[in-house]
Amino acid sequence: MSSYILRRLLLLIPVLIGVAIIVFGIVRLLPGDPAVAMAGVHATPQYISQVRAELGLDEPIHVQFGVFVNRLFEGDLGVSTRTRRPAAQEIWPRFKNTVYLTAIALFIASLVGITAGVISSVKPYSIYDQVVMMFSLFGVAAPVFWLGLILMLIFSVNLGWFPSSGMGTPLHFVLPSLTLAANSTALIARMTRSSMLEVLKNDYITTARAKGLKEKAIIIKHALRNALIPITTILGLRFGMLLGGAVLTETVFSWPGVGRLMVDSILARDYPVVQGSVLLLALMFVIINLFVDILYAFLDPQISYS
C-alpha cells in the first residue's frame, strides 16, 4: 500500500504540469489585455507598456511559461494583477470557504441520499420507492441557479428564516449547501438503490436471513458495506466536482468562494489568480481520488494494491 501511495503521489507531478500547460495556454487565449485592465481604459500607451513590462507580458510566451513553472516549484503563484497582492493570499481564504460549503453539502447529500437509497432498495417498487425516484429525477434535472433562487424566494424573502446572501453565521450555510447538495443527493440515492438491489440478490444475504439474523443487521452490516464501493466512487467524484462547480451557487448566494473569485479574475484578466485557482482545484481532485482508492481496500479486504 505504501509503495502504491508513493507512486500515485509521484504521478501528481506530470498531472499538475499538464494542467499548468493547459491552463496557461487557455488563459492567454482570453480576449483582452491584463495590462489594460490593470492600468485602466484611460491610461496612456506608455503607462500600459510599463505595466505590461512589470507583469512580464512583453516576454515571449515560452519565457512567460518558464517563469510560471519556476515560481510553481518555489511555491509562488505570482502576484494578482487586480489587487497587487500575492495570488496565494487571494486564493486561500476563498478556497477554504468553498471547501466548507462543499463539505457540508456533501455530508447532507451522503446522509439523505444513502438513507433514501437504502430504504428504497429494501422496499422496491413501493410508494416510497416511487417518491424517492421522483425526487431524484427532479434533483438531477433542476438547474442549480433556478433551485437556488426558488429556495431564496421561499425561505429568505417570504419566510425570512435564512439569510439570502453572504457568509458570517451558521444560518448562511443552509440555503447554499442545500442548493449545492440537491443534484448529488439525487445521484447518490439512485446509485445506492441500484447497488443495494444487486447486493441483496447475493446468496450470502439469503444465508444470513436463513441463520435468523435481524433484517437491520443484514442490511447495514452485510448489504450496505458491500454496496459502498460504487457509492464511495460517486462521493469522491462528487466532492471534486462540487469544489470546481460551486460557482453558480456562490454567484446566486454571493458566497465568497473560489468560484466567484475565478469569475471575477477572468473578467479582470487576472492570470495568476485564475491559474493558481485551477491548479489548486486540480490538486485537490487528484488527492481525493487517491483517498478514495485507498478507502476501497478498507471497504473490501479482497482489494489489494501492489
CATH architecture of the largest domain: Orthogonal Bundle
Number of helices: 13
Largest sheet: none
The structure class reads: mainly alpha
What is Rg? 24 Å
- Unreliable spans are none
Order of helix and strand elements from N to C terminus: HHHHHHHHHHHHH
**Ends distance:** 7 Å
Transmembrane segments: 9-30, 99-119, 131-157, 169-189, 235-258, 278-299
Membrane topology: Multi-pass membrane protein
Domain ABC transmembrane type-1: 95-296
Keywords: Cell membrane, Membrane, Transmembrane, Transmembrane helix, Transport
Structural overview:
This protein is an all-alpha fold and 306 residues long. It folds into 2 domains: 2-87, no CATH class; 92-299, MetI-like fold (Orthogonal Bundle), CATH 1.10.3720.10. It is built from 13 helices and no strands. Helix 5 packs across helix 8 (174-199), helix 5 runs parallel beside helix 13 and helix 8 packs across helix 10 (215-245). It is found in: Cell membrane. It comes from Halanaerobium hydrogeniformans (Halanaerobium sp. (strain sapolanicus)). This is Binding-protein-dependent transport systems inner membrane component.
